[in-house]
Amino acid sequence: MDPRTAQIAANLAAVRERIAAACRAAGREPESVTLVAITKTYPADDVARLVELGVRDVGENRDQEAAPKAAAVPDVRWHFVGQLQRNKARSVVTYADVVHSVDSLRLVDALTDAVVRSGRETPLGALVQVSLDDDERRGGAVTGAVEKVAEAIAASPALRLLGVMAVAPVDWAPDDAFARLAAISGRIKQRFTGPDGTPDWISAGMSGDLESAILHGSTHVRVGSALLGKRTPLG
Ligand SMILES: *Cc1c(COP(=O)(O)O)cnc(C)c1O
């Protein structure tokens, strides 16, 4: 094993142990939480190392970076987790299995149109990104818009509503943020359970706050720096 692979393997074991411990504390099965490795700013070689180590879900937040990495490492589920400009929708739908950051009706339309034009055969998974503090600048639908965006996704022939996603606002206690997201998830599940299933994904928790997210029901933790190392400020 090359030194970089060994380092990532040790980090991955530590993250998996954190997830397992948080599940034990919450009375949950470790299999109920999926680790999505966020590989932004790190090279495709690191994605390949993660895959070799058993990771099956990988995420990126910018199309320019994601598209070439997805082409280099195709045999995983690719998650798009960043703010998405509508003009990037056509690219993203060619490689992404799930977009976590759907936060407007216009983006639902752009993604629907992109999937239809692409000839893609399976629907694109979509999560409503929620702005927990109603500050739209960092992405996410404000409280009053969440159900409208969910409704549009559910009505789209090209998208499949899977659940909700959020990033804890920096100045909030993670427990407050993730408890609020859990309540929103409960309403979305109740309203949108149908023939396609229950939109029960809660995409929440990152390197610094995954324990709190798991305690509040997160099903998908998005972990970057704890696996691959601290990024430069730009990332
Ligand atoms: C970068 C990023 C993450 C991972 O953050 P870490 O603190 O490095 O674990 C998770 N979610 C989103 C949306 C991100 O942009």
CATH superfamily: Alanine racemase
Number of helices: 9
**CATH class call:** Alpha Beta
Rg over C-alpha atoms, rounded to the nearest angstrom:
17 Å
Number of domains: 1
Report on the biggest sheet: 8 strands, parallel
Computed structural class:
alpha/beta
- The helix-strand sequence is HEHEHEHEHEHEHEHEH
Percent of residues in β-strands: 15-25%
Q: What is the CATH topology classification name?
A: TIM Barrel
Strand order of the largest sheet: 7-6-5-4-3-2-1-8
What's the end-to-end separation, in Å? Answer: 27 Å
Number of strands: 8
Oligomer state equals single chain
Percent of residues in helical segments? Answer: 40-55%
> Would you identify the regions where 5 or more consecutive residues have pLDDT less than 50?
none
CATH architecture: Alpha-Beta Barrel
Q: How would the global form be characterised?
A: globular
Task: Give the rounded overall mean pLDDT.
Answer: 96
Short description:
The protein has 235 residues and is of the alpha/beta class. The protein contains 9 helices and 8 strands.
Give an overview in words.
The protein is an alpha/beta fold. It has a single domain, classed as Alanine racemase (TIM Barrel, Alpha-Beta Barrel). The chain is built from 9 helices and 8 strands. Helix 4 packs across helix 5. Pyridoxal-5'-phosphate binds next to strand 8 and helix 9.
